[in-house]
Specification:
This protein is mainly α. It has 19 helices and two strands. The radius of gyration is 20 Å and the shape is globular.
């Protein structure tokens, strides 16, 4: 059998990647600009958090039915419509900002529209990548995906802060344009329209389809333990942005400095993506998750040290270096082992399982920043996550999450039943299968997707976990 061409010559994947890289750069602009806009309009960090909570809650509520439809419908059309909705909603926001008529309900409407579009786009794109990339090249593809997201996180926040300082409308105009570019790239990628057995899946009801994916996931106790830890990590990660913004402002930083601080996550993640294979080989997936989440908890506490407005760059950078290794390992396992006909459902189901508390994150972060101060908020968030990580360290199921998938069975406890199609998930996360939590944006349309970030998956540090593009 002939070798597949190098990944760099895979036109379909590269078009998907270019579109995602462009749109994610736009998203990271608004990841910072949206909270700054809400603070400028309302003066309330709590309201800024509430808008972020609306977006994430919308995404989670729609994720499960969207995952089922992604397994049944034309995935290419889903992706095109989703990008069109996100482009138009962001353009509409730019218009009202330019006219100086923006009100809170406008931003909430954009949050709901983008959260809905993200819920459909993510599972469709996850399935599309699996259909256009050979199995033996998935590791390289996901490493390239990781580099894309972190490069956007590096460049986007400083650029977003700079553009917002020049004029409030500029970040939102740029974001709308990047969605348009992504739409064109998806069209050029000529993604296969649906899986071969999608017709058969239409014969069952939506509830039965979701239940089938739920049974498949429930049989993997190691994965369940990882999702329980990621549930708390995502709550903290989605609460982090507003306290950091307030802290930098309290120390005399302007929006440009805030952007530089947040870029520390992108720089750390970009370096981590380059060495992800080496780091991923050091520990089995379960212990790797514990180590990365523990490092994240310590970094959150360290941000509060009174060392000036630029100091948060150091702990944010440090927390992100190890994250891509866990993300790549888990995403490859899931993409390889989950039956294609179930990928949409599994992407959405694991997103819901790991992100159930995430809608409370931006609201929690905003309330804590407003009523106990940014330093107190960071110490409470980091300390709480560290305590949960210490409890999770005693879980035998999580330690047994080794990644061994001999005979198509999970090596962890309770994982002896093969999943549908005779395969097991192994220790991977689902769908976007990211291993470590996202620093969720509290903004409406900032969803950094893996298409992926990912968003995108179990957890994804440094990027919004829901609505990964």
């Amino acid at each position: 059998m002939s070798e597949p061409p190098p990944l760099r010559r895979n036109f379909r994947f590269q078009m998907l990647w270019i579109g995602a890289a462009t749109s994610e750069l736009g998203s990271t602009l608004t990841w910072l600009a949206l909270p700054l806009l809400i603070l400028a309009v309302t003066g309330s960090a709590a309201l800024a958090g509430l808008v972020g909570a609306c977006r994430i809650a919308t995404n989670l509520l729609i994720s499960l039915p969207a995952g089922v439809w992604a397994d049944r419908w034309d995935r290419r059309r889903i992706m095109l419509v989703s990008e069109a909705v996100r482009c138009l909603s962001m353009a509409a926001l730019a218009v009202v900002v330019f006219a100086d008529r923006v009100e809170l309900w406008h931003i909430v409407a954009v949050a709901v529209a983008n959260g809905t579009a993200d819920a459909f786009f993510r599972p469709a794109r996850d399935t599309a990548i699996r259909t256009v990339v050979p199995a033996e090249q998935l590791s390289l593809a996901y490493a390239q995906e990781e580099a894309r997201g972190h490069a956007a996180s590096l460049a986007g926040p400083p650029l977003g802060g700079l553009l917002f300082g020049l004029g409030r409308v500029f970040p939102f105009v740029v974001d709308a344009i990047t969605y348009l570019i992504s739409l064109v790239a998806v069209a050029l990628a000529r993604v296969p329209r649906r899986s071969e057995d999608s017709t058969r899946s239409r014969k069952s009801g939506m509830g039965a389809d979701i239940a089938e994916a739920g049974r498949w996931l429930w049989r993997r106790s190691g994965l369940r333990a990882a999702l329980a830890l990621s549930l708390i990590a995502n709550l903290v990660a989605n609460a982090l942005l507003l306290p950091v913004i307030v802290l930098v402002g309290d120390r005399g930083g302007d929006p440009a400095i805030t952007g530089v601080v947040l870029a520390g996550m992108g720089l750390g993640g970009l370096l981590g993506a380059a060495v992800s294979a080496r780091i991923g080989a050091l520990l089995p997936p379960g212990r790797l998750i514990l180590a990365v989440v523990g490092l994240f908890a310590l970094a959150v506490c360290a941000i509060a040290l009174p060392l000036g407005p630029y100091w948060p760059v150091v702990p944010l950078f440090s927390a992100m270096v190890a994250t891509p290794a866990a993300n790549v390992v888990l995403r490859v396992l899931v993409a390889t082992l989950v039956p294609e006909a179930m990928m949409g459902r599994m992407t959405s189901l694991i997103t819901v399982a790991s992100m159930g508390l995430a809608p409370l994150g931006p609201l929690l972060g905003g309330v804590l920043a407003e009523y106990v101060g940014s330093t107190g908020a960071l110490l409470l968030l980091g300390g709480g996550l560290a305590a949960c990580c210490a409890l999770a360290a005693g879980s035998p199921a999580l330690h047994a999450l080794t990644g061994a998938v001999a005979d198509g069975r999970d090596s962890g406890p309770g994982g002896t039943d093969p999943g549908p199609g005779g395969t097991d998930s192994g220790p991977g996360g689902g769908g976007s299968g990211s291993a470590v939590a996202g620093s969720g944006s509290s903004g409406a349309g900032s969803g950094s997707s893996d298409e992926g970030s990912g968003a995108s998956g179990a957890v994804e540090l440094g990027r919004e976990a829901v609505g990964e593009r």
